[in-house]
C-alpha cells in the first residue's frame, strides 16, 4: 500500500468532500461529529435517515464488488472516503456492522440466495444488524460460547444469552455464534446463524454504562427461531466464519477510526491551550507522543491493507486492536490531565458530561471489548508468531 495518492485519487477526495459538505446540512447538520463511540445512543432515527441519504448517493458498499451491488472502488479510494467522512464530522454509522462486517462475509462465504436476500437491505440503508458473539462467560474468548441451537422442523431453535450487543435495540437482524453440536467444546461444534430480531423469543435489555448511556445490551434467546437456511457455511463451520468476519473488521474503516481519533486529539490540544496546560513540558511531551502514536497507527494500517481483502489476517492486522485501544485509553487519561480540576466538575445535573469526560470514561472499555489486551497478546503470540498455544482449562 503506497503512502501517497495519485491525482485521480485526489480528484475523488474532492468529490467526497463536496458531497459531504452539501449533504451534512439542513436536517443532518445536527449529526456532525455525533453518534461515535460513547455517543451511539444519540439521534438513532436521524442517523438511519442519513444511511438512506448515503445510499442515494452511492456511498454504501463502496468497496464491495460491483456484481454484488457495490462500487468496486480501489483501496486508496476507500481510504480516502473514510478519512474525508471523519474529517467532515460524518455521524457514527448505524449501518457499520451490516456494511463492514456481515456484508463482506456474505460476499465471501454466503450463498447466492443469502446475498440476494440480505445485501440490498444493507446497501439501501433500510436493514440494520447487530453482532451476537460475546456472552457473560465468553467475552474475549469466543471459544467459550454456550448459546445453543438445534435444528427442528426446518428451523433453528436458539437458547442462550449474548452481551455487549451494540445497537441491538435498533437492529432488524443479528448474526449469532451458537453451539449446535451437544457436548462440543472450544472451536468445535459452533455454527454461524442469521437471526431476525423482531420475534417473541428475543428480549433486549439495555446496559447502562459509566457514561450514563445505554447503546449496548444484553440479548436473551428463549426458543428464538430462524430458518434452516439462515446459516453461513455448514453446521460446525462457525469458528471459521467468525474469524473471517473479524478479519473484515480490520479493513479500510480503520483509517476512518483514526481520523476520528485525530478529531479527538485536536479537541484535547484546544483544551490544553484553553486551560494553560500546554505550558507544562510534560503535557506537551504527552501530546507529542499521542500525535506520533497516531501516525504509527496510520502507517501500520496502510501496511495492513497491502494484503488481500478476503477476511484473512496478516500479522500487521493482529497487532492493530492492541495498539489502538491502548493509544485511545491513554488519550482519555491525557484529556483529564489537560482539564485539571475541571475534569471533576459536571457540566450540569444530574449527570451531564462534557465530551472529554465522556471520552475518558468510554475509553476505559477500549482494552476490554472486542477482545481484551490479554486475549490480543495471545492472538499475536499464537497466530502471528507461531508460539505454543496457552494451555486451556476446561
CATH class of the largest domain: Mainly Alpha
Task: Kindly state the percentage of residues in helix.
Answer: 40-55%
**Total of DSSP H or I helical runs spanning 4+ residues:** 12
CATH homologous superfamily classification of the largest domain: Butyryl-CoA Dehydrogenase, subunit A, domain 3
Distance between the termini: 42 Å
> What structural class results from the helix and strand content?
alpha+beta
**The CATH topology of the largest domain:** Butyryl-CoA Dehydrogenase, subunit A, domain 3
Tell me the series of helices and strands, N- to C-terminal. HHHHHEEEEEEEEHHHHHHH
Major sheet size, sense and barrel closure: 4 strands, mixed
Which CATH-level-2 architecture of the largest domain?
Up-down Bundle
Structural features, described:
The chain has helices at 7-23, 44-57, 75-87, 96-109, 112-123, 238-249, 253-275, 281-304, 315-318, 320-339, 355-363, 373-384; strands at residues 129-132, 148-152, 155-166, 173-179, 190-196, 202-206, 216-227, 231-232. With 394 residues, the protein is of the alpha+beta class. It folds into three domains: 7-94, Acyl-CoA dehydrogenase/oxidase, N-terminal domain (Butyryl-Coa Dehydrogenase, subunit A, domain 1), CATH 1.10.540; 129-239, Butyryl-CoA Dehydrogenase, subunit A, domain 2; 250-384, Butyryl-CoA Dehydrogenase, subunit A, domain 3. Strands 1-4-5-8 form a four-stranded mixed sheet. It has a four-stranded antiparallel sheet with strand order 2-3-7-6, with no helix packed on it. The longest helix has 24 residues, at 281-304. The two termini are 42 Å apart.
